Amino acid sequence: PLALGLYTVNAVYGDTITMPCRLEVPDGLMFGKWKYEMPNGSPVFIAFRSSTKKNVQYDDVPDYKDRLSLSENYTLSIKNARISDEKRFVCMLVTEDDVSEEPTIVKVFKQPSQPEILHQADFLETEKLQMLGECVARDSYPEGNVTWYKNGRVLQPVDEVVVINLQKIVDKTTGLFTMTSSLQYMPTKEDANAKFSCIVTYYGPSGQKTIQSEPVVFDVHYPTEKVTIQVLSQSSTVKEGDNITLKCSGNGNPPPQEFLFYIPGETEGIRSSDTYVMTDVRRNATGEYKCSLTDKSMMDSTTITVHYLDLQLTPSGEVTKQIGEALPVSCTISSSRNATVFWIKDNTRMQTSPSFSSLQYQDAGNYICETTLQEVEGLKKRKTLKLIVEGKPQIKMTKKTNTNKMSKTIICHVEGFPKPAVQWTVTGSGSIINKAKETKYVNGKFSSKIVIAPEENVTLTCIAENQLERTVTSLNVSAISIPEYDEPEDRNDDNSEKVNDQAKLIVGIVVGLLLAALVAGVVYWLYVKKSKTASKHVDKDLGNIEENKKLEENNHKSET
């Protein structure tokens, strides 16, 4: 490298500077010497080497004590390069007749430390010019330059918005520079999370280089421009008994810590932190809720509907009625929106609502009226009706001869609730029969059956008794040897009705035929009587009394 046409050696601060003499060693060389030139041009000799005695001498120069080394080819080395080593050095070769000189320029370079942003602001405020920080790069030679960046783009100075001041200080001892660049900045809301950094540009032996600082993010403070109210809930809907948490927030930084909450029915706002909690809310909590800053500016509102569901079952609980009685049942619903209602009887869902104009035993059971609001999670109500249908014992006895003709089955059909107790006795002797078999008690009905083979006619008595009444019915049963018409064990009501209808039809036909015959006879009798009267009038007109008598006799005979 050449500087102003002179040979230049570039050295790194702290390293060894190596300078070759760059002169051909002439014949008759006596010795070689190195010197450097002061700023005023006066020389300072620092090293000497004899070509004949091969000895090396170093001049007593404090700055270079123990730092010099001169080789046999007259190359000079200087250890621990300093900024003060930037000089013009000259190699001299001396013969008896001549002195040759060759100058070398030494340049020393020092890379600065990585720049740091010091004295950082705790936070930045919008619309306010303030000191953001100082970018410091130390121990540079030659001096460098500092540039500020935001999000990777150069920050250019702008009056009252971006103000940059660069200061360079040199250490008199080392000759190294420290660059300090301060940045005053007026941020905007958009500068939140912006990355600020600085870069130092310097020159090294191989040319221009840069070093970048670590980026820094500043907390940007800006005022609230909007408030928002929210309902914090685990569900999207609110029902009676729930807790409601209202949260009010502002979009400023830092966010507001206190707000005014306006509750339906309250004229003044309630001062609170950013949350307001209402527990076990009722339906009257439905309405519009608002919040604002404490200075009553910037308000937001939301509407809350507290869903409710009421169910009234009439009658409810345990109800006892008599068979045949009427029982009106109503399940009334009051809710915040349309509710679904259904009935369950004895764990089975009913297709229609129960209605009792004439209670039967099969109507007894456990009824549940249940309602839900499908859109509101967990809102369900139910009430129960335990219906008991009571009735006095009713008895019907039947008998039939078994197919083997060796015995007869006597059945006592019993209805009633509570379930009657049945007892069989033989009328006359009063003996009790204990070998009866009972069918399953279903819907207030069951049967008690005995099998007997009487040797003579007997009268059996069936006694049914519950808490309401005692009922007694007797049935004559012929001896097994005497034939009698058997009665069916159980007759279906529908079949009985069909038989009765057929009998009524036959009786009607017979009665109709008899009435028709009677009417025909009456008509014929009237006709004959009219004929006789007409004949009598004709005879009187003719004056034939005798013939009339004969006609009367003949008519009498004919009538007879």
From TrEMBL:
<dbReference type="InterPro" id="IPR003599">
    <property type="entry name" value="Ig_sub"/>
</dbReference>
<dbReference type="InterPro" id="IPR007110">
    <property type="entry name" value="Ig-like_dom"/>
</dbReference>
<feature type="domain" description="Ig-like">
    <location>
        <begin position="103"/>
        <end position="212"/>
    </location>
</feature>
<feature type="domain" description="Ig-like">
    <location>
        <begin position="324"/>
        <end position="386"/>
    </location>
</feature>
<feature type="domain" description="Ig-like">
    <location>
        <begin position="223"/>
        <end position="305"/>
    </location>
</feature>
<dbReference type="InterPro" id="IPR051116">
    <property type="entry name" value="Surface_Rcpt/Adhesion_Mol"/>
</dbReference>
<dbReference type="InterPro" id="IPR013783">
    <property type="entry name" value="Ig-like_fold"/>
</dbReference>
<keyword id="KW-0393">Immunoglobulin domain</keyword>
<keyword id="KW-1133">Transmembrane helix</keyword>
<dbReference type="Pfam" id="PF13895">
    <property type="entry name" value="Ig_2"/>
</dbReference>
<dbReference type="GO" id="GO:0002250">
    <property type="term" value="P:adaptive immune response"/>
</dbReference>
<dbReference type="GO" id="GO:0030425">
    <property type="term" value="C:dendrite"/>
</dbReference>
<dbReference type="GO" id="GO:0007155">
    <property type="term" value="P:cell adhesion"/>
</dbReference>
<dbReference type="InterPro" id="IPR013106">
    <property type="entry name" value="Ig_V-set"/>
</dbReference>
<keyword id="KW-0391">Immunity</keyword>
<keyword id="KW-1015">Disulfide bond</keyword>
<dbReference type="InterPro" id="IPR013162">
    <property type="entry name" value="CD80_C2-set"/>
</dbReference>
<keyword id="KW-0130">Cell adhesion</keyword>
<feature type="domain" description="Ig-like">
    <location>
        <begin position="393"/>
        <end position="473"/>
    </location>
</feature>
<dbReference type="Pfam" id="PF08205">
    <property type="entry name" value="C2-set_2"/>
</dbReference>
<dbReference type="GO" id="GO:0005886">
    <property type="term" value="C:plasma membrane"/>
</dbReference>
<feature type="transmembrane region" description="Helical">
    <location>
        <begin position="505"/>
        <end position="527"/>
    </location>
</feature>
<dbReference type="InterPro" id="IPR036179">
    <property type="entry name" value="Ig-like_dom_sf"/>
</dbReference>
<keyword id="KW-0966">Cell projection</keyword>
<protein>
    <recommendedName>
        <fullName>CD166 antigen</fullName>
    </recommendedName>
</protein>
<keyword id="KW-1064">Adaptive immunity</keyword>
<keyword id="KW-0472">Membrane</keyword>
<keyword id="KW-0325">Glycoprotein</keyword>
<keyword id="KW-0812">Transmembrane</keyword>
<dbReference type="Pfam" id="PF13927">
    <property type="entry name" value="Ig_3"/>
</dbReference>
<keyword id="KW-0677">Repeat</keyword>
<keyword id="KW-1003">Cell membrane</keyword>
<dbReference type="GO" id="GO:0030424">
    <property type="term" value="C:axon"/>
</dbReference>
